[in-house]
Sequence to fold (438 residues):
Amino acid sequence: MSDDRSLFEYLLRLADSDLILAQRLGEWVGHGPVLEEDIATTNVGLDLLGQSRLWFAYAGEVEARFNDGSGRSEDELAFLRDAGEFRNLMLVEQPNGNYADTMARQFYFDVWHELLLRGLAESTDARIAEIASKALKEVRYHGDRSADWVIRLGDGTDESHRKMQAAIDGLWMYTGEMFDVDAVDLALIDGGIACDARALAAPWRQRVDAVLDEATLRLPTDVWMQGSNGRGGKQGVHTEHIGPMLAQMQWLQRAYPGARW
Amino acid sequence: MSAVRAATQSRPTMDAIWAALAAIPDPEIPVISLVELGIVREVSWRGDELVVTLTPTYSGCPATQVIAADVAAALVDAGIVGARIETRLSPAWTTDWIAPAAKTRLAEYGIAPPGTRAGVQVIDIGGLTRREPRAPVPCPRCGSRRTRELSRFGSTPCKAQHRCDDCLEPFDYFKPH
Fold:
């Protein structure tokens, strides 16, 4: 795989995890537990949607370099690919569930996302570095909030504790692939373009442990990590949840190609 | 007279262009201008084309497209048709770029202005405990410091919701970013 093809794949992974999580968070519009949370959760989604657009725009430009000058637009990449072509982490496509499920998913992702963007802010690819630096400021704020909710619900009532623990347990198996690298990553790590995700595992675990300790929660042990056989979301292998979600997200462009308003 | 010379002679001055930009209100917070918000990073001529460089506040801020359209319209009013509007991400926008006078006007408008965050680049995420309460944000209506955060986010991506425990009014806080 050429460097540009690897870079394109890598950018899709960044864009897709942002987009898919933004879409999931958008499902809370009008359904938040209280108005303030409805607004907060969807604002986080809005930040992620904006970040995904920056990654998609760059991915399209890179695609043009190895595809005879023809690269797909942000909209084409978002709305006209099928599930197997999406490169997001399986974690972010998991259903919203209850608010503890949504916050546990957000917390696992935010801690990883902040570490990743800190690494990418130092990328030798100037475009990646500037997008990451911009996104990092927003994502730090996301991480503060999701950690607050994990603590508040974990160290809350018996019922909120039980639900938060169930959420932490249920999503744990999807966290492993955040730290796996494959040929796409390896092609870009040596040149300092990509962030070596393997190096994020220890600081991620340290932060997660500290928050869960505060929240009186515990991590499960001996769980098979989904995707650890090299066949996970980053390679286009997804859980059953992504299909219905894409159907909802993409139906308008599929039914009325090129529709604008 | 060549067309190029004609265009050059009829060019508004840089001061006039900045004045035109400084008159454009932020679409969501109309008491401050785009220039005061700190998002107009550069204005320059590239040959006969005027290039206005903007930086977004938040990546997903829906006002970004409205702002670009407002800038183009204001430039047409100033006699410049077909200006190029470019986006620059780096250095990333910070609320430290908001003009001091604009911060005062934000407070008068009912939005608590952001505190400074210059120099704050890296937060140590190594040893989290339950976070210290943040310094209280003064109520923009009564000035009380007995206020609290209701939500980390508000009506736009750049704001949070707070409430005053003295006058009981809820208010927006422009988040330091």
In short: The domain at 3-255 of chain A is CATH 1.20.1260.10 (Ferritin). The CA atoms of residues 97 and 167 of chain A lie 9 Å apart. Chain A is about 65% helix and 0% strand. The interface with chain B takes residues 36-37, 39-40, 43-44, 46-51, 53-54, 111, 114, 118, 129-131, 133-135, 137-138, 140-141, 143-145, 147-148, 151, 203, 206-207, 210-211, 214 of chain A (CB under 8 Å).
